[in-house]
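Q: I have 372 residues here and want to know how they pack in 3D. Can you give me a structure?
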Amino acid sequence: MVANAIHSAADARRLARRRLPWMLFDYIDGAAGQETGAARNRAALDAVTLRPRILKDVSQRSLATTVLGASAERPFGIAPMGMCNLSRPGADLMLARLAARYRVPHGVSTVASTPMEKIIEKAEGYAWFQLYFSGDGKGTFKLVERAKAAGYKTLVLTVDVPEVGRRPRKLRHRFKMPFRIGPRQFVDFALHPRWSLATLFRGKPQMANFEMDGFEFDRTETRANLTWDILKRLRDAWPGTLVVKGVLDVEDAKGLVMAGVDAIQVSSHGTRQLESAPAPIDVLAEIPGALGPDYPIYYDSGIRSGEDVLKALARGANFAFVGRILQYAIAAAGEAGLHTMWTILSEELSLAMAQIGVTSIREACEQARPLP
């Protein structure tokens, strides 16, 4: 069983690279520019150390926590990722079922390959809708109304993509959605028959949230029109919880608090946008002291292990989100691979907690909170 060969995120990535067409692996795996930003982010995470503490009874440990007042069985959830069904048909719903099982948020991307209504149903309500603003905003606000009607209570506005970053690995394959099959892509798919046949049988993935009456999606529309004024309009239009994702500046974080945003998410979009962006884990350390101990701060970007999750908590995050490694696991071994990867993250986190002498997520977070 392939899932039994996954013992770390690196194993899942290696197997995914073998099983996916090159075009799709590089789309999922790639980062902006020459990918020095991704390397810098990884180096920054590696540089964060956790101090072992001894002679504490850590025999009973809990990974449970709360996020936005709701109980969650893990301090990490599922980051919004576009077109997850590229990794394997049905991936969106695999993630949704996982979210329901562990009562964690499933970030549902604007460009998900399964309709938002179906995902929140399978997630049993444990889903947040991630929103991109584009063009003049008419289509964006239609999506907001659709998310509201579908039962979403949390909206995650992503603000760090005024224009889509250049990712040379994706560009070399001429990756586009929907697929345009030329000789190079045909050979790529032919050399990966397991993925190609499964996708042919289930139908090629589409941007499902744009298949709605009265809405025409133009992927070339700019996202550069998003402003503080539009944020105010969105705040007024959305009755639920509003999270802003893509924060890498303390002054921006303060401004979002003043604008009535309920939580922020420190993120570099997985280093897929600005190659020169600072490492989010370093920025994260500056923010709790500026916003105070009670304001919710979330983290994503580059998490590859349970220890990375603990590092984010130790730097001041209340909750973390995991992305690409879950897609690697699905590509490697389907739903079984996904659950294996989730178990590995959980075990790594629990073992690291024992080493630093904490038994709860609250203890792990409190170790980082600045003194008044």
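Q: Anything worth noting?
A: The beta strands are 65-67, 70-72, 76-78, 106-108, 127-131, 154-158, 241-247, 263-266, 297-299, 319-322. The first helix runs from residue 9 to 19.
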